[in-house]
Amino acid sequence: MLSRNAANLYWLGRHTERADYLCRLIDATVRLSALPATHGGADTAWEAALKASAAAAAFAATGRRATEDAVAHFLSVDQAHASSIRCCLENARNNARAVRTALTADTWEAINTAWLEIQRFGVHEPDTATVVRLVDSTKKALQAFDGAAHRTQLREATYWFIRLGTSIERADNTARLLDKKYHILLPRGEPVGGSLDYFQWTTLLRTVSAFNAYRWVYRDSVKPWLVADLLILNRAMPRSLATCYTDMVFQLDQLSADQGRRGPANRLAAAMLRRLGSTSIDALFQSGLHEFLTGFIADNNRLGDAIAEQFLF
Amino acid sequence: MLHCFGKPSMVRWQMQAFDEMWGFAGASGAPEAAKVRETYAHIADWLARTPRETLETRQRQAELFFRRIGITFAVYGDPEATERLIPFDIVPRILSGAEWALLEEGLRQRVDALNRFIADVYGAQECLAAGVVPADLVHLNPQFAHVQMGVRPAADVWVHVAGIDLVRTGPDSFFVLEDNARTPSGVSYMIENREVMLRLVPELFGQHGGQLSVQPVETYPDALLACLQSVAPPGCRGEPCLALLTPGVFNSAYYEHSFLADKLGIELVEGSDLFVDGDILFMRTTAGPKRVDVLYRRIDDDFLDPLVFRPDSALGVPGLVAAHHAGNLTIANAIGTGIADDKAVYSYMDGIVRFFTGRDPILPNVPTWRCREPEALRYVLAHLSELVVKRVDGSGGYGMLVGPTASAAELEAFRQRLEAEPDRYIAQPTLALSTCPTLTAAGVAPRHVDLRPFVLSGAGRVTIVPGGLTRVALKEGSLVVNSSQGGGTKDTWVLEGGPRPGELPFPAVPAPGPER
Q1: Is A120 touching B (CB cutoff 8 A)?
Q2: Which of A161, B60, B373, B464 could form a disulfide with A9 if both were Cys (CB 3.0 to 4.6 A apart)?
Q3: What is the ipTM of this complex?
Q4: Where are the domains of chain A?
Q5: Are strands B435-440 and B443-452 parallel, antiparallel or unpaired?
Q6: Coil vs helix vs strand at B449
């Protein structure tokens, strides 16, 4: 496969996953901001959303105040913000168009539709009701894309590169989300704070669509160390770091099987997965959750570099 | 509409265009009084017994279908999407086996002459020495590629893919309007138009069963693949690696590039996917560099290699020409073929055909006056209001005068330009292109058409898929078939075998079809 095509497919996966994450983040933030400020609502919630999407610096550079309207606009349809949902979808669609013949008609039409849909919401500050509709519509469109790719793409390099991009982006997003909230994720036995923290945890769970999953897995009230366990180590949780790496090891193996040789990216991903498998949430807290997450994000980026190098992007 | 044939000095004008279905008899007259030409018997019958609403429904379905196929390639969702979808007409343009046999022979001769002419221009230059073409016209031509002097491409093939634009003015009168010897496009329409027709009006093909069946065009990608493989560099071992070079997604023909790459099963590459190392061309793949033996390029010479041509071009590959000259790479079409489709050189094509094939051209040029010659200039100035005047280096209708429709002021302005710089102009009679029945807002009516067959030249073999791209001027009376100016396309049918004149009983007996 041409390296340029591989890069386009990989970034198609990353851009769609990033757009999906932003949808969930905005969704959860709208909900949190409906609570009084003493519960962590309103403006504070939107500032947190900027941090959780690694967009705080970019937003600060615009000189705007972090109001709900301004941040929701910045993260959703702002053409000037390269990581807005709109820009992610535009990039994803351009990636897809460049490899049009590698995609099935269903997959192409799904991503093209997602791009056409978001354009209907314009590029100006949307009101809250519009934001909710936009997020809802985009989530559905991206699920259609995932479904089309899953159902119709041949299980060969084309498909594995898309999935690889999805997995690595998802690992990055989950780790960033956790890292911005590490101060409210307390180890077992620490005195648990008031209702403010409770809403922060549930918002975090909602952002990764894991609120119900949490109850199924732990059958317990929301405890901060269990939230961390779910999102880092639980292999049933589709967005946990451990699951992302299980997927990536598999996807990289599939790609290597095509080429008959494993490379540095395979080894790096396998090593990361082994580390995640041989630790416990208590051990992570002991050595410092923030340190762990920062290290993980850096390692994840290194894996991204190794992938680009191995497949000559 | 004015009509001319014969030599420029013996111009004969005729007020009516030849109609592909009715001949000269009935294009404007009452159809029931006129005789349908045999090739169109079934279509005439189909048109007569199909209610107009049904035709219009089919037409809409066809466009929807075409749009869906078109969708998969590129532009749906872009603001200019609708402009890029070329209108499709459901009434096919039909050529009999006998007519095609004549065209095929003529096309083979023409492309043979083009290849030999180009080889000669970059080789012994015998045709210049013999005065067939003025030497300065070649040497000073912007299309003349000095870097190709002394170069012999694999199997001595220069024009691997040619698109020859033909016009028709009578039952046996076909002329070459233009030779496209660089990177001709439109072949994807030839293939897609047939796909759409097969799905929407299969009964038409059914009625043509037996002797009258329509020859398939879907073999084109296989023929192109075989052609490109046959011209791999002599040193190439094993199966040659082919790639199609596109300028990228923003090129208007990108969808055709991706369509062809997909059908050929070869990589669609951009300049940045390629690099040259040790005079060998490689593409960057996930498994490392892969050697490319034959490059089917769809970008112009000027952009191919910044080391040789335009240094500011980022579309090409540095070192590409060196790899070609080292004999490690075949470029199709070869560099420098533009010299054969230049308008000034075109006017010498009849002589070029005679010189290289030793025979009169089967498909002659449209008569052309070269204004650089004083006698021709005098004639052109005296008949300006009847002629089409073109700039030799112009294209897309720029710097062009259509005498019969020009105002007095425009004629005067052109007269002055001609007198000032006669070298830069050629003139041609205003040809009455043949018409073909076409579905219009006012029902089925004649519209002017041309035809672009595609000729593939490989090592020792020329292949012409029976068919081509028929372009139709959808505006009443218009002679301009370009898609940018209201032109559309039709499926082009070449019938198998006959019918030759008088061979078939006429009128044909209409078969009961499912058309209700």
Answers
A1: no
A2: A161
A3: 0.77
A4: 1-153, 154-313
A5: antiparallel
A6: strand
